[in-house]
Write a structure and sequence with these properties.
- With 345 residues, the chain is α/β, with parallel strands linked by helices.
- It folds into two domains: 2-75 and 311-344, no CATH class; 84-302, von Willebrand factor, type A domain (Rossmann fold, 3-Layer(aba) Sandwich).
- It has helices spanning 15-35, 40-46, 52-74, 111-125, 150-158, 172-182, 205-215, 261-270, 285-294, 312-328, 335-344; strands spanning 2-4, 76-89, 91-97, 130-136, 140-147, 191-197, 218-225, 231-232, 234-236, 242-246, 256-257, 275-278, 298-310.
- It is flat and about 85 Å long.
- 28% of the residues are buried.
Length: 345
């Protein structure tokens, strides 16, 4: 099991592209400065021993040193011992809608991103509860089996987007059924399903699935993402950049999406849970946490790593080796290369 003691330092990796860009601009500036020095042929002759390939290698080494030191700062740790730890909690399955309508921007930055933010904050507040993640649109899939590994939950959550499910639609019933299948119904834990969607569907089976969950002792809460006022759905190119047009139907008309509160309230009532509507000022997280905390939390044994060993030393050592290599590596061409060049003359 790998973890980072100071995972926040990995954000420094975003500096690496800036370092590379700075190197490129420096090389362009140096090339321009040399061109102003004098006659091109003369300058080239004077710099005949200079090796461009070695200079590029030194630049690559510099970038690698930066990367290794950043990883070392975050202190990677390897789990070395597993023990069963008894924790009090409940079992939660979060089902998140990945249909195209979740890209609507009536809630900023859009419905899907706001939903992911809400889940991430919820995970930060959990203590001892087990959590799983279901993604759904026209089909439903287990993105993360139920676990107490909150770091893994946030990692899997970060990869969620509308393109990972090819079949479009909003099949809430399939998400509920798959969530029930994902629970261990014999472990005695209180269980709940949190459905996060705009509810833009006429899935009558969802209410039947919610009633089935209630009979099995599983509570269903619904979190509505969106506003009652209809908005268009923006299109994005393959690079994830928003295009200057909106999604259209087969007749060429712009598709308008709005929150279906009535259905989500019915599902929550059928599942003995509550319906919460998110908006630009609140995500409903406080209300949702209060409902989860009302549930009876029972002890359950979970195998977790209890001892970790630091591994930052490995990355520091590699960085020092590369630094030493950078110091001894000359920008000049090797004598053999110069000999071959003179022989050609």
């Amino acid at each position: 099991m790998l973890r980072y003691e100071h995972i926040e330092f990995l954000n420094l990796l975003f500096i690496i592209p800036c370092v590379i860009i700075a190197m490129i601009f420096y090389q362009k500036w140096k090339k321009k400065a040399i061109s102003l020095f004098g006659d091109q042929k003369l300058v080239k002759e004077l710099m005949s021993s200079f090796s461009k390939s070695k200079e590029k290698i030194k630049d690559i080494i510099t970038v690698l040193i930066f990367i290794l030191l950043i990883i070392a700062l975050s202190n990677p740790q390897i789990g070395t011992k597993m023990e069963e730890v008894k924790k009090e909690g409940v079992d939660l399955m979060i089902a998140i809608d990945l249909s195209n309508s979740m890209m609507a921007e009536d809630i900023q930055p859009n419905r899907l991103e706001r939903a992911k933010q809400a889940i991430s904050k919820l995970v930060d507040k959990l203590e001892g509860d087990r959590i799983g993640l279901i993604v759904f649109a026209g089909e439903a899939y287990v993105q993360l089996p139920i676990t107490t590994d909150y770091s893994a939950a946030k990692l899997f959550l970060s990869t969620v987007n509308t393109s990972i499910i090819p079949a479009q639609g909003t099949e809430i019933a399939k998400a509920i059924d798959l969530s029930i299948e994902s629970f261990d119904m014999e472990n005695g834990q209180d269980k709940a399903i949190i459905i996060i969607t705009d509810g833009e569907t006429h899935d009558e089976k969802a209410i039947e699935s919610a009633k089935k969950a209630k009979e099995l002792g599983v509570i269903i809460h619904t979190l509505g993402m969106g506003l009652n006022k209809g908005v268009p759905i923006p299109l994005y190119n393959k690079y994830g950049k928003k295009a200057d047009e909106y999604r259209k139907d087969r007749e060429g008309k712009i598709v308008i999406t709005k929150l279906n509160e009535a259905l989500l309230q019915e599902i929550a009532n059928a599942g003995k849970g509550i319906y919460i509507r998110a908006n630009n000022s609140r995500s409903g997280l406080t209300t949702l946490l209060a409902e989860i905390n009302k549930m009876e939390k029972k002890k359950i044994g979970t195998m977790v790593f209890t001892q970790y060993k630091d591994r930052f030393q490995l990355f520091v050592a590699l960085a020092l080796i590369l630094l030493f290599l950078d110091l001894i590596l000359s920008n000049k061409k090797s004598n053999w290369t110069n000999y071959l060049k003179m022989k050609k003359r």
